[in-house]
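Schema walk-through. Below, the input block comes first and the output block second. Nothing else is stored per chain. Lengths vary across the set, and this one has 292 residues.
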Amino acid sequence: MRQQTRPSHRAPRRGGAAAGSALGLMVLSALAPARGADLPPPPRETAPVAIGGGWYLRADFTESMPLRPTDATLPDPSDPGMPPLVRRTLSPEPGYGGGVGYRIAPWLRVDATFDQREATRYSAYSSRTNFLTGYNVEAGRLGVLTGLVNVYADLGTWWGLTPYIGGGIGFAQTDFRRGYTQTTCLIDACDGGPGAGARPAVVRPNRSVTNLAWSLTGGVAYALGAGFSLDASYRYVSLGRAESGVDAYRFGSSLKDLAANEVRIGLRYAFSDGLPSLRGLPVVWSSGNPYE
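--- output ---
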């Protein structure tokens, strides 16, 4: 008798293995998005932020020509015949300054400036006899420091020239120094003392006064290239008042309505790519251990 052979089960086993592999791939593919969803997204690369491209620096030379001030000395009730001060003069003096500004729009910019003027020479005269028998002089040195916030409107550019107008407001500090008053007799004993000529000067103490200041300006700028511009302008500036300390006779110098016409020549430098950045510089760190 021929021996009966058993049917082979290898083929079904191969099919089961393939089905198991396919099932495993499906499970893995289903789990992969779930695992990826649990992870936070990678951080985005942030672009560096420029700190404004409109910043500029300025330096200025000023020739200040003060206008005639007003005498602000209060009348003395005990001396109604006190003569007024005449020939009140303040000498022209140079000055210097600088500041920082920002261009808000192509036609609009603002800046903050400080300007120090050399001490101007002040003098004024008075005489009870209309300078017939004698006169009195009061004098001193007057320095002025201003700090102003200014706004300018550029009116357009032609052939590299940009005219502009503007105005500013801030403070003025007036410093009255080396003040004195002195009588000179043109005849003998004009003041009751013997002889003629100049009498000893009476010193008046120094004093500083801080006032509200404002200005109006107009000028023109010329682009030199590489961020530099040459600036020429006229400015009217109101400076307030100035006072000396009182002397041994309880008198002092007092002026108000101080103002000046000023011609300014300056240089501006604009940061075309914003303020200098520290980005990209190497970072140096130390734990303080000298053996590291």
